[in-house]
């Protein structure tokens, strides 16, 4: 599962990185501690402009047929293995795919002393790109753009933290995910590369990240982890 992530870079930086127009209007600042239902930046393909665009979306997908947007809080993640068959996601898989920029993400590793928050981040401070989906919902206050992050089975060292991880895309796979009319089935079935995963650091961080009210670079600072107590 991916229930909290870091996307603190400016929208200008993301626009340059993805060669995408900025459609956010400056309304979505970067956050170190992004939580479900908050506004986030996603990258989509705009067929009218034949260009990529960065748009503001609420994290937690609200299907077009939903009675109200509260359903989105239960749809922050979609499993790669079943997303193409689920009623809430299958139409989006065909034509409403997105890229979700991340500087890193957080998981809570369960150990003998309880849950330890960990920050999973590229050792080279590079930008991560997760596969996502988006949807438009027409409500009484206008149209709502929402999104979900696709997850896959964790691999390598990441399995020691959590059984799931974001479906990370790199290189040509990013363009393929956004390509109009592309069959997404192949990308959904391919796990993140060993090279990409090997480049990730699993960094224990402080408990402050657990509160959505907290934000700032201090949340990424490493903390020492106490060794398990022994009988001798």
Secondary-structure topology with pairs:
Layout (H helix, E strand, L loop, with lengths): L4 E3 L3 H8 L1 E3 L8 E4 L4 E8 L4 E9 L17 E3 L10 H6 L1 E6 L1 E8 L2 E9 L5 E12 L2 E12 L10 E3 L5 H7 L6 H5 L4 H5 L1 E5 L28
Parallel strand pairs: 2-5, 5-11, 6-11
Antiparallel strand pairs: 1-3, 1-8, 4-5, 7-10, 8-9, 9-13, 10-11, 11-12
- For the secondary structure, the number of strands is 13
- Main sheet: strands, sense, barrel: 8 strands, mixed
The fraction of residues assigned to DSSP E strands is: 35-45%
SSE order, one letter for each helix or strand: EHEEEEEHEEEEEEHHHE
- Low-confidence stretches are none
* CATH superfamily (homologous) name: SOS response associated peptidase-like
In DSSP terms, counting alpha (H) and pi (I) runs of 4 or more, how many helices?
Answer: 5
Gross geometry: globular
Q: Which percent bin holds the helix content?
A: 10-25%
CATH architecture designation: Alpha-Beta Complex
| CA(first)-CA(last) distance | 37 Å
The structural domain count equals 1
Kindly provide the name of the CATH class.
Alpha Beta
Using only C-alpha atoms, the radius of gyration works out to 18 Å
Q: What name does the CATH topology carry?
A: hypothetical protein yedk fold
- SS-based class: mainly beta
Overall pLDDT, averaged?
A: 93
